Amino acid sequence: MKALSGGLITNAASAFSFLRQFDNVVPIWGIQRETELDQFISLEKNPPPLDKSMWSIISKDRAELSGDFCRTCGYCLPCPAGIEIPTCARISLLFRRAPYEGFLEDSFKEKMELINNCIECGHCKNHCPYKLDTPNLLKRELKNYNEFQIHLFYKQ
After folding, report:
1. What is the mean pLDDT of residues 77-88?
2. b/e 27-66 (16+ beta carbons within 10 angstroms → b)
3. Percent of the chain at pLDDT above 70?
4. Angle at 43 between CA 38 and CA 47, to 5 degrees
5. What does the DSSP 8-state code read for residue 93?
């Protein structure tokens, strides 16, 4: 499930070739767009080799994504405080791996600020299959979000 880590793994061929090395594994890709489906169908028809180049990509992703990051499974929801946990809990990674401009709009800033309203009820933490300390992860991500905005402000 979430073989692409909710969009954080950006090289589908490396994820595909990694998972194909295991017998009896059927990935649940979590495809969101028809173009992604087309890509995986083409990979199935012409499987990429798990070679040195692929291992290099996999190693880079492992180093950057290891540890306590949200995979966006959504089991933490609903949040009583209205926090959009799957996105807010991984904003630092999204800044590095996705176009970030949309995350700087006022509507998204408001979503991030909801983290300040966390009542630490434990719902998210108790339902996370990865055993993340979600309330603290969210606080850390809000701090990183605010620092990123300051960095961009002074960069301009």
Report:
1. 96
2. bebbeeeeeeeebbeebeeeebebeeebeebbeebeeeee
3. 97
4. 170
5. H
